[in-house]
Amino acid sequence: MIAIDVATAARSLEGESPLSILEWASKHLGSRVTFATGFGAEGCVLIDLIGRNRLPIDLFTLDTGVLFPETYALWRQLETRYGVTIRAVLPEQTLEQQAETHGPTLWTRDPDRCCEQRKVLPLRRALTSGGFDAWITAIRREQTPERADAKVVEPDHKFGLLKINPLVTWTHDDVWAHIYANDVPYNVLHERGYPSIGCQPCTSAIVPGENLRAGRWRGAGKKECGLHVATPAQAKEKP
Ligand code: SF4
Q1: If you take atom 4 of ligand 1, which residue's CA is the nearest one?
Q2: Cα–Cα distance between 38 and 41 in angstroms, integer?
Q3: Ligand 1 near 202 CB (within 6 A)
Q4: Any idea which fold 6-237 has?
Q5: Does ligand 1 come within 6 angstroms of the Cβ of 225?
Q6: Is 111 in the pocket of ligand 1 (CB under 6 A)?
Q7: Ligand 1 in contact with 114 (CB < 6 A)?
Q8: Residue 128 host element (H or E)
């Protein structure tokens, strides 16, 4: 692990542009930094910056097997547009194997367990076995109260890595201004009432006035998949 004074880096990078933060990551970490994208609008902005500036940052996505067809189409579109490869990281079990082990449509009965199997454990494997020192995320502080305290650079004790959040200070409008100004490909579902897009079974459209993430796990009392903020079930497991 490279020696970086995380608190000093976080302070000095606060307020810097996302590109400056990505360039800092490339300068200090070289190819030992990876970006896990879920193809949200924010992720598309970061892929645009990484791709256009030829930054040596690894790219991957957690392919749960139940993403929207529109998301799979966007994945290919981004690869073609920027000449990059976005690796697919798969769960240990196929959907059929998961149905045999846990019963069908686990996401309707135990979404925390489903996210653990199809997102959290694959992410852990991808981050801890790939020789990385840091991972980049597309989270923004204003998205949820749980994300409000995120720093530009912070230790991620869960994975033993640095976590770099280039967009933490950006607003929703900042993201879309960048997308329109740079003609960045984005998920067409955003134009159909889906500001936040995850797996197809767990994502619904929102109505005006709702929180932008209100369509995620609607009615399930769940707000996070456990990748950035612990779910209540994960929190209970902590000593
Ligand atoms: S978002 Fe839904 S389908 Fe996707 S991994 Fe989580 S519970 Fe399963």
Answers
A1: 199
A2: 9
A3: yes
A4: Rossmann fold (3.40.50)
A5: yes
A6: yes
A7: yes
A8: helix 121-128
Among candidate residues 12, 19, 21, 15, the one with its CA nearest the CA of residue 163:
21
Q: Which amino acid is at 180?
A: Y
The model scores a pTM over 0.85: yes
Report the catalytic residues: 225
Full 3-state SS string of 167-190: CCCCCHHHHHHHHHHHCCCCCHHH
Q: What is the pLDDT along the chain (239 residues), one digit of tens a residue?
A: 567 899 999 999 999 999 999 999 999 999 999 999 999 999 999 999 999 999 999 999 999 999 999 999 999 999 999 999 999 999 999 999 999 999 999 999 999 999 999 999 999 999 999 999 999 999 999 988 888 999 999 999 989 999 999 999 999 999 999 999 999 999 999 999 999 999 999 999 999 999 888 899 888 777 777 666 555 555 554 33
Cα(16) to centroid(ligand 1), Å:
34
Would you kindly state where each structural domain of the chain is located, as residue ranges?
6-237
Is the four-CA dihedral 74, 199, 138, 160 of positive or negative sign? negative
Q: How far is the CA of 114 from the centre of ligand 1 (A)?
A: 5
Instruction: Quote the DSSP letter at residue 70.
Output: H
Amino acid at 197: I
**For the CA of 222, the nearest atom of ligand 1:** 7
- Ligand 1 atom having least distance to the Cα of 66: 3
Nearest atom in ligand 1 to 107's CA: 7
CA dist 49 to 32, 37, 52, 153, 201, Å? 18, 13, 5, 18, 30
Q: Is the CB of 121 under 6 A from ligand 1?
A: no
